Amino acid sequence: MGQIKLEKVTKAFGNTQVIPPLDLEIEDGEFVVFVGPSGCGKSTLLRLIAGLEDVTSGDIVIDGTNATALPPARRRLAMVFQSYALYPHMSVKKNIAFPLKMAKMPEDKIEEKVKNAAHILNLTDYLERRPGQLSGGQRQRVAIGRAIVREPAAFLFDEPLSNLDAALRVNMRLEISELHQSLKTTMIYVTHDQVEAMTMADKIVVLRAGNIEQVGSPLDLYRSPNNLFVAGFIGSPKMNFLEGEDAAKHGAHTIGVRPEHLRVIHGATTSSGWTGTVGVIEHLGSDTFMHVHLDGDRGTITVRADGDNPAKVNDKITVEALSEDRIYRFDKGGMAIR
Amino acid sequence: MARRVPTSRKWLVTIAAWAIGFLIFFPILWTILTSFKTEAEAIASPPSFLFFDWTLDSYREVQSRSNYFLHFYNSVIISLGSTLLGLVIAIPAAWSMAFVPAKRTKDVLMWMLSTKMLPPVGVLIPIYLLFRDFGLLDSRFGLVIVLTLINLPIIVWMLFTYFREIPGEILEAARMDGATLWAEIVHVLTPMAVPGIASTLLLNVILAWNEAFWTLNLTAAKAAPLTAFIASYSSPEGLFYAKLSAASTMAIAPILILGWFSQKQLVRGLTFGAVK
Amino acid sequence: MATAHSRTAARFMIAPAVLLLLAWMIIPLSMTLYFSTLRYNLLMPGMEDFIGFDNYSYFLTDPAFFAALTNTLLLVGGVLLITVIGGILLALLLDQPMFGQGIVRILVIAPFFVMPTVSALVWKNMFMNPVNGLFAFLTKAVGLQPFDFLSHAPLTSIIIMVAWQWLPFATLILLTAMQSLDSEQIEAAEMDGAGAFARFFHIVLPHLTRAITVVVLIQTIFLLSVFAEILVTTNGGPGTASTNITYLVYAQSLLQFDVGSGSAGGIVAVILANIVAIFLMRMIGKNLDI
Predict the structure, then answer these.
(1) Which residues from C are below 8 Å from B2, CB to CB?
(2) Whole-angstrom Cα distance, residue B168 to residue C2?
(3) pLDDT averaged over consecutive 10-residue blocks of chain A (338 residues)?
(4) Domain that holds residue C152
(5) Could you list the residue ranges that cross the membrane (chain C) (predicted)?
(6) Residues of chain A found within 8 Å of residue B172, distances taken between Cβ atoms
């Protein structure tokens, strides 16, 4: 079991309120990702759940019991830290065994569990090594191993992939997702990378300045963002935003269109599109991203076209939305108009 | 990505560096060599460099004419004793400053450092008189106290810089793993702190071993460590080069060996972490 | 993570160190200050009278004080000059690729671990002795008259001895600092067309500024208190030719038993050292980010 409920949780450091009253429910077996720009309070929130920081007010309920006052060790949660926080003076085996040893499990059982974990994580050949002798990816796996042997109610991940290089990051992302599918344990994962959030999560919690901006499945957030912030944060490349006359035409203060929801019309102009000059072109092979400077200084928009689009720099082109319902409308306060 | 260095240049640098290194080391080498000569060979002109009758006579003489091992023993007791006592006092202090920093921690550290800047001569007279009145002159105990106090700031500082490098996340991981405070200290903190404590110990033994202001002023015979014992060779025994060399070699050898192990810590310890 | 409980515990853990150092600083220093206002001679006990600043005017107007002050400045300045310049050159050399770098390092560092009395006696007897010393042999070998270093150039001789002891310290710290210089910076300068000298003066030297300052300040603290080297070689002589302030205070109080003026001298030494200490503390404090 691993159901976690936050009820009116707040956190203040001195006079600075970093988490305003916040409610959140995490179901058993869910993969929840906290995402947001740095300094949005997502790590603090995770540490509050872990018990590494005390809440200023409010309650944290884990599996029906109020855990607000429990020390970290008694919350049955396991955490994987950004720096991995492996014990440098212990072998891989001892690192993984440490929480079991602390729980006073009999030696032979520890041995068996460590073996199992090492097998799952491909660490069997490295059990006698020290963390210093391992690569980044291996260290990451040891940290995960140390977490899974405890069979916790939930796993907490604090930006676990940010110290890895790009290729390894993609690999580990997959491994963690696979781990979740086989263990079916609740996982809470903190990241600033929206791609990680989109690819891994069952449920994404978008945070800004301690506030929850939106909670939902990855596709919910992509398809119907609540506000400008979520719209701009989810999706890559970023959603294009236009204000003024263009927006007014659609009865909004700001309108947004994703680059992948635009179509290019060479030369000709239509009433529903925007004309402009092609600036930088980025060829990815499968796709081509074009940065188009709109006529009349109305800004620059990014367009995704397919890989063999013939446009060249300085070409005059017109772009238009695939359909009217691909245009997101926002009011003056940045909230979505639905 | 180091570039290939022309071998000729590398050889040139090697020869120059070895020549200068040899020159700087020469007084020590010469002392060691002379200690194996007879007195006659030690002042022979021209001096012989390697081709003389190697003998241990001088070492035997030094011990038989003066109680060399008493002074050696004094040096060991005083340097080790003051360092251990200093560690006992400094470990809790450095510990709490590194892990429970308060607003004034920085001020306390800086103030401790400032006591190290106090020139010993400024407090020579009162200490001398206090020692005289309390019967501490020429006692190992008295010197242990004084050397503990003069090296305490360095010990606190070195430990502080080492402890501060233990990442907080590791302690948090231990807490998540269910470690009690005691288990955290025994299984996680201590093993990680031991290298820092060992380096601190090493450097402070060296500093205390070579300390030559208080040891010269506060001892006479009974409690005199090697610094003071060697000073007694200033005249006229110093003219017996072989014996002077033998006594000197024995006095510096242990520290020379310890010192070579502590090069890295030396920089950090003596610059209070300002250069690493 | 700090709770009220752990804060209290922390205070108890710091207390012994703080109290001991406080006692070590305040008790003797205030005694020195008190003695410095007394007519106080150990040979005439029971005659202590309050005489105000007389000890200071006596100490400061004594020609020996000016000699000692000059000698102290020359000693500190001379050793600093030799060790800093020599240290930079040596560090530059040792930073080059070579064979047996580790061994050369060990050779260069060794003098720092030699206790002051040993180094002073070895230099005095085995090298500078005008009859049997190695220098005397070398000068005679090239047909010159041996030079009696310690009687004719006592201060210079002591500067040489002390510089030999401190050169390794300067070298080691400057080398450590040099090795922390990002090699990409040097490569960038090279790409920008800077020659070896330009690279040294525009990149390496500025990078070393901080380490040089630290070397200068720390050595100054120790060099102001040079004592053993003088005691076992020249006893401050001939006359006051190699007496520094530390030795002068020692001589006044423990050789002539004049505690009063010795104490005044001690206070003067504390003030001199404090001027240096303030700069050093600022340097280190800046680096300390808690």
Answers:
(1) 97
(2) 12
(3) 88 86 92 91 90 88 90 87 88 91 89 91 90 89 90 91 87 91 93 92 92 92 92 90 85 90 76 84 90 87 88 87 88 87
(4) 53-288
(5) 12-35, 64-94, 106-123, 155-175, 208-228, 264-284
(6) 52, 72, 79, 81, 85
